[in-house]
Amino acid sequence: MSIIVKFFMAPDDASAATTVGAGPGPAFTSLSFGNFDAEEAVVEWECLFSGGRFEDLLEAGEPRIVGGEDDDGCVVFALSARLVDALAEAEPSRLDEVGAQWARQRAEDGEPIDPDVAREMVGSLGALARGTEEHGRGLYCWIA
User: Fold this and answer.
1) Are 120 and 99 in contact, with CB atoms under 8 Å apart?
2) CA quadruple 17, 19, 25, 30: dihedral sign
3) Dihedral (Cα; 96, 121, 100, 45), 10-degree rounding
4) pLDDT tens digit string along 41-94?
5) Residue 9 contacts by C-beta under 8 Å, 6 or more apart in sequence?
6) Model pLDDT, residue 69
7) Cβ of 35: how many Cβ atoms within 10 Å?
8) Rounded to whole angstroms, how far apart are CA atoms 5 and 107?
9) pLDDT tens digit sequence for 115-137
10) DSSP letter string over 44-112?
11) pLDDT grade for 2, boundaries at 50, 70 and 90
12) Exposure of 129 by Cβ count < 10 A (0-12 exposed, 13-18 middle, 19+ buried)?
């Protein structure tokens, strides 16, 4: 579980990787959250949007690490283009639905998240994803 989670826009993997030490600063448009497994969450969200299987996405290398080590240190990873597209193209009602489904899924797995927080998180990511498409940037996540 990550203590600090920041989703942010960056022009490319190399730029995103520079944030690994201290996180995305004011030069990057970002959203901050905390206390959930962000790497697992992005795979779950992609499954909820696409109907894919969690195991298939993990086998495909999602999410793709672009900086840091996944051994309790800071990590930066890229959200898949498919997830970014789904977030950017979703209507607010669909974002709300995915957030609610994710909250139910987490509760069933014994890791409850407030449904309102889950819906707000997915909705905010939808807005950030639209910004990435408008500005030709990728969507990344920094965790500590």
Assistant:
1) yes
2) positive
3) 100
4) 999 999 999 887 877 777 777 799 999 976 668 999 999 999 999 999 999 999
5) 28, 29, 30, 128, 131, 132, 135, 137, 138, 139, 140
6) 75
7) 12
8) 20
9) 999 999 999 999 999 999 888 89
10) HHHHHHH---HHHHHHTTPSEEEEE-TTTS-EEEEPPHHHHHHHHH--HHHHHHHHHHHHHHHHHTT--
11) low
12) buried
**Residue 40 corresponds to which amino acid?**
E
Residue carrying structure tokens 């942010």: 8
| Structure tokens that stand for 143 in this block | 């965790």
Cα–Cα nearest to 82, from 119, 47, 38: 47
Residue with tokens 């690994």: 20
**How far, in Å, CA of 91 to CA of 12, rounded?**
26
Closest CA relative to residue 103, chosen from 89, 92, 87, 116: 116
